[in-house]
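Rather than argue in generalities, we have chosen a single entry, letters for residues, whole numbers for local backbone shapes, without further comment.
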Amino acid sequence: MSFVTDPYSSLQFVELSHVWGHGVPSYPGQADVKMHRAVKFAEHGVLAWRCNTVLHTGTHMNAPINMVQRGADLADIPVDRFFGNGVVLDIPKGAYEVITAADLEKATPAVREGDVVVIVTGWHKFYSDSLEYFGQSPGLSKDAAEWLVAKKVRMVAVDTQQVDHPLATSLGPHRGGPTMKRLAREYQHATGLDPKQEHGEWYIAHKTLASAGIPTIEQVGGDVNVLLGKRATFVAAPWKLQKGDACPVRFVAMIDPSGQCRIGSGNN
């Protein structure tokens, strides 16, 4: 499935989220999502699930407080950050590569001030509990994050497992890590580069965006490929979670091929 068309407005909706549920891929070192039926149809005639989860699972939003002390939590992010026009940038990247400011500058359509920016490297197709998805994915460089901040973007979404390169996170040899024990060695073997020299700053891209108050969405998926290189309107509303650093979100894009749809005035 690619588009779902609303019969009244003719708006076309595009799913940008991975399916979420029991046992979805989780970061190395973190517990899996666990779900069980607390109330069952066979027993009670209704269904209700009980869930135990880390909030950074599946397609999820990060609040600035995730990386910045006293930054905005999910409940404090202004609601206008969750809805707006933007662009899906097609920036293909291979294993261990970096998304730079130069990549963003030359991508089309051009990023405008206030945009929601969705960066698609092609890595969403590897979404799974795998060494490739979590350990070899590309990530944003510091200068790419600074470029996005300078553009005053509304929100940044990526189809990779994190905003940063995995060697710039606790998956590699940074504080709390490495939670992927082989990662630094395999990176050096594959690239010939020193991970500490190339990625010596811990979560630098994520922290740069968070310090500017920009929420991020990681692990974009669904039918995002149908919007590559296009502009659209996006919505992703997180839980109104006090002190919340992250939560799963349903991320959706909408386009209007007719150009006729307008949002209602709110009057009778």
